[in-house]
Amino acid sequence: MTSGAIKKQGFLYNLLVTHIFFPFINRFLKSIVDKSKEALYVHVTPTGHVSKYGSGGTKNSVTMFIDNPIHFCWLMILDEKMGLGEAYMAADWRAEPNPTEFLKLLIRAKKEKAASRKFSQKPKATLMATAIGVLLSFVRKVTAIINYIQHRIRDNTVAQSAKNIEELEKAQLKKIDALIDMLDLSKDDKVLEIGCGWGAFAIRAVQRSGCQWTGLTISREQLALGKERVKDEGLEDKIELKIQDYRLVEGSYTRVISVEMIEAVGHAFLPQYFQIISDRLVPGGKAVIQAIICPDAYYEKYSNSSDFIKKYIFPGGHMPSLGAINAALPCDLQMGEKRHIGRHYATTLDHWYRFLGSIVGKSSEKLKLSVTSTGDEVDFEGQGNLNNNELAHPVTMFIHNPIHFCWLMILDEKMGLGETYMTGDWTAEPNPTEFLKLLIRAKSKLFLGLLLSFKN
């Protein structure tokens, strides 16, 4: 039992847990795992009650410890979609060998039930909302942790872990180089980056291609560090980083890049997002988007059950699906190449987890912090230990594919329509004029919708 476990005594307490709260826990887990070919053991630590779910043996089994069953059930009753995640945050439950294996087992069990068409929709929504929430929490924490490591740790911990971080940096550069290759940059390109982060992508791309770069952010902390890095590399004449809302940017660009920013847009504003990209791209231009996306099969349920994320992780955040993206593209943008990189991302997260664990294990200051949003800044508080297994959860999401990670190429074809008509590649009935009128009317309706969204 961990120090966070709650030991309770007394006849009344045991009576309540045994006859009221444990039956609730039993129904919840049985609905997900009971038909599984694996084994989940559940220990209700205050009463010593042990249950097994699934038909598997002890080998490779997972054990869940419920240290505070009353509070666990209370949170699940209040809101099943958020209860499991909230109970974990409150240290009401834990898992061995680790929470990652617990989530893997739940997802595999869910897939088994889905295949037999006997899976209950209610637990699926709970699992999806909690799992996605944990993922986005990890992504935000890693961003803050990177900056923390770079600026605040100066003891032997980093030196001892130098090999690990060097390997991670090499992998990151390899990923950036692959995105640069996808953009097909040259020295004549003018690039707009929507969400420039700490400036690493801009610096690498300009060093390789010699292009002109404009990067947008809404974080003062990111801007300060990004500008410092650009200055250190002597690229101030090539790279401009600035605080600006992407919806207010002007000018024309041959390329647009946006890495993990589309999740902040929201379903209702996807057409506006892509219309702005279209307006900024010159005819024949190209955009590349890196996105965490939800499979189309889950999208409607996810859209209606993401309260855990909205409350705790990323207020207003939303993962689009490929179908939603295609529906949001204006007529002059077309989806091009798609690359799924989820399994690579799972490996990356696993390496980060191991690296951070090695730092926490050796660091004299124990590296305790929590990440809280205050405007566009990040505060560090001595509230949460990074040696917590919650940092391993997102690996599960990419291995078992309830969510995807994609690179999407978007092609601007504003000039292509006229050119291909001149070369006889397409015709229209009753005539090309009516076809063009239809496109103009459709675009006018979209523009009116954007105006109304700003008004509201």
Give the strand content.
15-25%
Distance between the termini: 53 Å
Per CATH, the class of the largest domain reads Alpha Beta
Compute the number of helices: 17
Q: Report strand order across the widest sheet.
A: 7-6-5-8-9-13-10
Shape: elongated
Cα-based radius of gyration, to the nearest Å: 25 Å
SS-based class: alpha/beta
Could you give the topology of this structure?
Blueprint: H1 11-33, E1 40-44, E2 49-53, E3 62-66, H2 69-78, H3 80-89, E4 93-96, H4 99-115, H5 121-152, H6 156-160, H7 162-183, E5 190-194, H8 200-209, E6 212-217, H9 220-232, E7 239-243, E8 253-259, H10 270-280, E9 281-293, H11 296-303, H12 307-313, H13 322-328, E10 333-340, H14 342-362, E11 368-374, E12 377-385, H15 393-399, E13 404-412, H16 416-422, H17 432-455
Parallel strand pairs: 1-3, 5-6, 5-8, 6-7, 8-9
Antiparallel strand pairs: 1-2, 3-4, 9-13, 10-13, 11-12
Helix pairs in contact: 2-3, 3-5, 4-15, 5-12, 5-15, 7-14, 10-13, 14-15
Keywords:
transferase, elongated, Rossmann fold, alpha/beta, Polyketide synthase-like methyltransferase domain-containing protein, 456 residues, transferase activity, seven-stranded mixed β-sheet, 3 domains, four-stranded mixed β-sheet, MeTfrase_dom, SAM-dependent_MTases_sf, Nonspecific Lipid-transfer Protein, Chain A
Description:
The structure is a single chain. This protein is α/β, with parallel strands linked by helices. It folds into 3 domains: about 10-120, 2-Layer Sandwich (Nonspecific Lipid-transfer Protein, Chain A); about 130-415, Rossmann fold (3-Layer(aba) Sandwich), CATH 3.40.50; about 420-455. It contains 17 helices and 13 strands. The strands form 3 sheets. The protein has a 7-stranded mixed sheet. The chain has a 4-stranded mixed sheet with strand order 2-1-3-4. Helix 2 packs antiparallel against helix 3 (about 80-90), helix 4 (about 100-115) runs parallel beside helix 15 and helix 14 runs antiparallel to helix 15. The longest helix has about 30 residues, at about 120-150. The termini are far apart. Mean pLDDT is about 75; it is low at about 1-5, about 120-125, about 130-140, about 150-160 and about 360-400.
